[in-house]
């Protein structure tokens, strides 16, 4: 009974069950190999994962995590700068607003010409897309800090480094984690497109190659792998947020 109660309380499990039910209903409705059954897909997935899918997933994961890491290293300091400086905000924010809506995925051919056809162009493409999410999230996190808190910290004689440690960083962390969740979803979508050009490894390449070969069971196995990768990364963000922002979950 305890195991059953835990399963009923598991929201992730609820979501997986609902998706599988919808998937199965589509399978029996379409009555075509284009949408294979969940059972056959999971069976094929576990057959392919050890030697095939794991390699493609690892290649995609390295590209995503590298791009996210670079975006954090660049985006967080810039976000702090424009959040703390009205002058920097007035100069840089308009530039961000102009560049952010641009469909940067269309610049992949240019990146490939300038940076080569390897991972550098694909990672650069992801960085140019998700860095704005992080930068804006950090800036807005700072702007939401009430001025009274600054006055309180200053009145206690806290140093500038202490202000960042005890006030600014805790204030922006929830915003940063929200930005990272959005960035991960965008990264996976962008990478799926980018991996269809000049590469032989990556889950995006694997899915499209299976589609070209009219192997829908392998294609859905790749889609399942991509979904699980996204699920694991988002759950990791939840765990990290609970560790570094425990006050968010006290409400």
Automatic annotation (TrEMBL):
Coiled coil: none annotated. Pfam families: BPD_transp_1 (PF00528). It is a multi-pass membrane protein. This is NitT/TauT family transport system permease protein. The chain crosses the membrane at residues 12-35, 55-83, 95-117, 123-142, 172-194, 214-234. Keywords: Cell membrane, Membrane, Transmembrane, Transmembrane helix, Transport. Belongs to the binding-protein-dependent transport system permease family. Residues 57-241 form the ABC transmembrane type-1 domain. It comes from Lutispora thermophila DSM 19022. The keyword Lipid metabolism does not apply. CDD domains: TM_PBP2. InterPro entries: MetI-like, MetI-like_sf. It is found in: Cell membrane. The lineage of its organism: Bacteria, Bacillati, Bacillota, Clostridia, Lutisporales. One of its GO terms (biological process) is transmembrane transport. GO terms for cellular component: plasma membrane. It comes from the Bacteria.
């Amino acid at each position: 009974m305890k195991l059953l109660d835990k399963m009923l309380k598991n929201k992730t499990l609820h979501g997986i069950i609902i998706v599988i039910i919808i998937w199965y209903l589509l399978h029996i409705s379409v009555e075509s190999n284009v949408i294979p059954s969940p059972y056959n897909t999971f069976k094929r997935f576990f057959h392919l994962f050890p030697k095939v899918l794991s390699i493609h997933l690892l290649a995609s994961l390295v590209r995503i995590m590298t791009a996210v890491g670079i975006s954090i290293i660049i985006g967080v300091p810039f976000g702090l700068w424009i959040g703390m400086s009205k002058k920097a905000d007035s100069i840089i924010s308009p530039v961000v607003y102009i560049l952010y809506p641009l469909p940067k995925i269309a610049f992949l051919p240019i990146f490939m010409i300038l940076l080569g056809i390897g991972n550098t162009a694909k990672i650069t493409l992801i960085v140019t897309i998700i860095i704005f999410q992080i930068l804006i999230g950090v800036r807005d996190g700072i702007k939401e800090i009430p001025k009274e808190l600054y006055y309180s910290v200053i009145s206690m004689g806290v140093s500038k480094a202490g202000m960042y440690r005890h006030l600014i960083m805790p204030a922006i962390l929830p915003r940063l984690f929200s930005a990272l969740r959005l960035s991960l979803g965008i990264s996976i979508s962008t990478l799926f497109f980018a991996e269809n050009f000049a590469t032989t490894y990556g889950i995006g390449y694997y899915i499209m190659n299976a589609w070209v070969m009219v192997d829908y069971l392998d294609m859905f196995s790749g889609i399942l792998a991509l979904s699980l990768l996204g699920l694991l990364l988002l759950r990791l963000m939840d765990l990290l947020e609970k560790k570094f922002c425990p006050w968010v979950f006290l409400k």
